[in-house]
Amino acid sequence: MKPEIIVAGLGNPGNKYKxxxxxxxxxxxxxxxxxxxxxxxxxxxxxxxxxxxxxxKNVLFLCPTTYMNLSGTAVAEAARFFKLDxxxxxxxxxxxxxxxxxxxxRAHGGSGGQKGLKDIIQKLGTENFPRIxxxxxxxxxxxxxxxxxxxxxxKSEKTxxxxxIKSAADAVEHWLLQxxxxxxxxxxS
Length: 189
Prior knowledge:
The protein is an alpha/beta fold. 37% of the residues lie in helices and 21% in strands. A seven-stranded mixed beta sheet has the order 2-3-4-1-5-7-6, with helices on both faces.
C-alpha cells in the first residue's frame, strides 16, 4: 500500500525522552495509532513507521529516530521514496511560544525557532508543508530552554496536555477529511 500522506510526529527516541515536552509529536502519533493501527511499527527511513488508513486515505505515520534536530533526514527520505510533494506531509511538533495545550495549524511557514522544523525545511528545500504545533509553554525564569523541552509536563498541566494530544489527533483526522483551511478554522483559536 503506497501512502498518499505522511504524518510525521517529531520527538527524540528512547525511554530517556519518553513523555518529555519535545516528544509531543510522538504522543500525538501514538494517539492516532491507538485509534486505528493494529500493526507494530517498522524501522525504515531512519524512523519508526506505521502504515494505516485514516479518512479513506493511506497514511504513513512516521516518528524519526534521528533525534529532533535531524528530523528532516527521515521526512525527506520517506517523501522521496514515495514521491510525495511537501503539501502531502503534515508535521506535528512542540512549540514553546504557545501556551501549554494550545494548537496552531498552518499550511506553511518558517520554523519559528523549532529545530526539527528547521531541519525539515532545509532537507525538503521548502517551507510549503502543513504543520500542527502543540503548545508546551515557555520555561520558567532562569531555566534553560534545552533543559525545559527535555523535561516532563507538570502534574498541573496533565489535563491540558491530554486534551491537546487528543485534539491534535482530531485535527490530523479533520485535515485528512476536510483539508488544511477547514482544520485551521476549526482548531486554531
